């Protein structure tokens, strides 16, 4: 995503009312509930369906670093969609939204 899109996502995440699930099992259970099954979650995260079932039952507790990053990204993307939509609507109509950006401007002589 672009810098402004990332900044907008971070600003919207500050309006969440509940914290995102921390453990891998809780995150996996949330995704299974959202996507209505272990097979769609397995396809989304590019792991086997059996591995998803093991995470749901807490038989596996710590995911590989690459899987942990994908899991965190997908849970964050789907977390509290109504709160996210309300924050975007409020920003578009009345309050506005603050996005932190950085710019580096340079000049090289020819």
List its traits.
single chain; 60% helix; mainly alpha; extended; 110 residues
Strand content: under 5%
Helical stretch count?
6
Mean pLDDT, all residues? 84
State the shape: extended
The proportion of residues forming helix, as a percent range, comes to 55-70%
Characterize the largest beta sheet: strand count, sense, and whether it forms a barrel.
none
Quick structural summary:
This protein has 110 residues and is mainly alpha-helical. Helices cover 60% and strands 0% of the residues.
Write structural notes for this entry.
It is a single chain. The chain is built from six helices and no strands. It has helices at 3-13, 24-35, 38-45, 49-56, 65-78, 81-93. 60% of the residues lie in helices and 0% in strands. The longest helix is centred in the middle third of the chain and has 14 residues, at 65-78. It is mostly helical. Helix 2 (24-35) packs across helix 5 and helix 3 (38-45) packs across helix 4.
List the helices and strands and how they pair.
Blueprint: H1 3-13, H2 24-35, H3 38-45, H4 49-56, H5 65-78, H6 81-93
Helix pairs in contact: 2-5, 3-4
């Amino acid at each position: 995503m672009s810098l402004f899109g990332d900044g907008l996502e971070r600003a919207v995440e500050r309006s969440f009312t509940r914290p995102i699930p921390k453990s891998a099992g809780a995150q996996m259970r949330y995704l299974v509930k959202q996507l209505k099954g272990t097979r769609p979650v397995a396809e989304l995260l590019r792991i086997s369906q059996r591995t998803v079932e093991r995470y749901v039952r807490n038989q596996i507790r710590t995911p590989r670093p690459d899987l942990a990053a994908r899991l965190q990204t997908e849970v964050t993307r789907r977390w509290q969609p109504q709160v996210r939509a309300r924050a975007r609507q409020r920003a578009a109509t009345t309050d506005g939204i603050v996005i932190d950006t950085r710019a580096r401007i340079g000049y090289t002589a020819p």
